[in-house]
Amino acid sequence: GRFCFAKPGEVYLVYLTEGGAAEIELSAAEGAYSLEWFNPREGGALERGAVREIRGGTKAALGRPPGAPDEDWLAVIRRKRA
């Protein structure tokens, strides 16, 4: 399963219960967004994956989470400030 919690245009949290690749629909959003990953099994600092930035205005690929990509991960997507 996949779940998304959002403050539209500001921050999006995408929880991937079984890891894997995912996309997010940002066609109504504007600007650039950073993408980092949180490992809920171990905690700690956010981690960077292969995709580090996504753009609003389209459907964006999140890529796969770092580390164990077939376990649960939380994608943390935050709007970048100019």
Give a short overview.
The protein has 82 residues and is mainly β. The chain contains no helices and 7 strands.
Structural class given helices, strands, pairing? mainly beta
| Helix proportion | under 10%
Described by strand count, sense and barrel closure, the largest sheet is: 5 strands, antiparallel
Gap between N and C termini:
34 Å
Strand content: over 45%
Sequence-ordered SSE layout with sheet pairings:
Blueprint: E1 2-7, E2 11-16, E3 22-25, E4 32-38, E5 53-55, E6 59-63, E7 73-79
Antiparallel strand pairs: 1-2, 2-7, 3-6, 4-5, 4-7
Task: Describe the protein's architecture and organization.
- A five-stranded antiparallel β-sheet has the order 1-2-7-4-5, with no helix packed on it.
- It is built from no helices and seven strands.
- A hairpin with a 3-residue loop joins strand 1 and strand 2.
- The model has no long low-confidence stretch (mean pLDDT 93).
- The protein is globular, with a radius of gyration of 12 Å.
- It has 82 residues and is mainly β.
Primary descriptors:
82 residues, mainly beta, globular
